[in-house]
Amino acid sequence: MRILFMGTPDFAVPSLQVLLGGDYRVVGVVTRPDRPKGRGGKTLPSPVKKVADAHGLAVYQPGRIAEIIDFWPDLSPHLVVVAAFGRILPAEILRLPAYGCVNVHASLLPRYRGAAPIHRAVMNGEKETGITTMFMDEGLDTGDMILQKAIPIGEKDNVGLVHDRLAGLGAQVLAETLALIEAGRAPRIPQDGRLATYAPPLDRDDELINWNGSARSVYNHVRGMDPWPGAAAFWGDRFLKIWRAEIVSEDGKQETAVPGQVLSANQRSGVLIQTGRGQVRVVELQLQGARRMTATAFLRGRVIAEGTVLGKAPCQK
Questions:
Q1: Does domain 204-301 have CATH number 3.30.70.100?
Q2: How far apart are CA 122 and CA 141, in angstroms?
Q3: What is the distance between the alpha carbons of residues 201 and 209, in angstroms, rounded to a whole number?
């Protein structure tokens, strides 16, 4: 089977590796254009491109998705496999391969359709998530499902751990899906749109912690942003990343405290913060321009005064 693979980030790499290790001919890889990354702004290839280059595969990085049509005759794939490519394919491309276009999606569809299903699931405190393979259509993750497999989300799991498990599971489910397609036994299970929820892309506002929520929601937000892009708050006019936290209490409120207020900050007990319901303790944090560190190490050289209110915007002086 001639397969064209489309993907970009780390999540897609195990799926590409399954194809390379199987009895398939990967005729090419389509990935997003190289982009500047890091403080130096150096242009770097995507994780998928690195693997493709290492295996001598033809790599295509179109600026516009419609440009795929230009090199399609040279590839003539029977099937397109998509994993975290980051763009919706138009109908003119979806109709081209004989076996269709199959997507490896990191949620239990129809829940969490969209670009950030892993982050949103952890941020929302979900107890499980999973992988769905589907035949793609013109909608946003609305195509008929082929296979689904679920995994639990542990109470202390961050989004990085869940991402890595799902990437491996995605490769496994893809291999099973391809076997069904080759045998002509792949099901087409319609999604129930009434059950659909959405996982839009993350933006800068999503990083900022809503202290008016419960201690549980703040805790889930923090672990749902670790290790990327990081939950955050403003300490005065300084941007503060909060990488790890723990729930101290899910009930009650100090009578005079407001959400986001620091109740105590010392090397012994860390940084205790009031939420809209209950308290959380910050365990690991990072001041803008500094390195990530434990709260104990952070407080050796800095003082966070009791009564300070951490905000969603810089405090006006």
A1: no
A2: 19
A3: 17
Domain ranges of the chain: 2-195, 204-301
pLDDT digits (tens, 9 = 90+) for 118-146: 999 999 999 999 999 999 999 999 999 99
Residue 267: which of 296, 246, 305 has the closest Cα?
A: 296
Q: Tell me, which fold does domain 2-195 have in CATH?
A: Rossmann fold (3.40.50)
Q: What Rg, from alpha-carbon coordinates, does the chain have?
A: 23
Q: Is residue 176 pLDDT above 90, yes or no?
A: yes
The values of phi and psi at residue 238, to 5°, are -105, 140
Q: Which residue has the tokens 């969209």?
A: 114
The answer to whether the pTM exceeds 0.85 is: yes
Single out the residue of 207, 202, 204, 205 nearest to residue 230, CA to CA: 207
- What is the per-residue pLDDT for 103? 98
pLDDT tens, 190-211? Answer: 999 999 999 999 999 999 999 9
Please confirm whether the linkage preceding 73 is cis (ω < 30° from 0).
Answer: no
| Tokens found for residue 285 | 């944090």
Beta bridge partners of 267: none
Candidates 228, 302, 233; CA nearest to 273 is 233
Amino acid residing at 32: R
Whether 6 contacts 85, CB under 8 Å:
yes
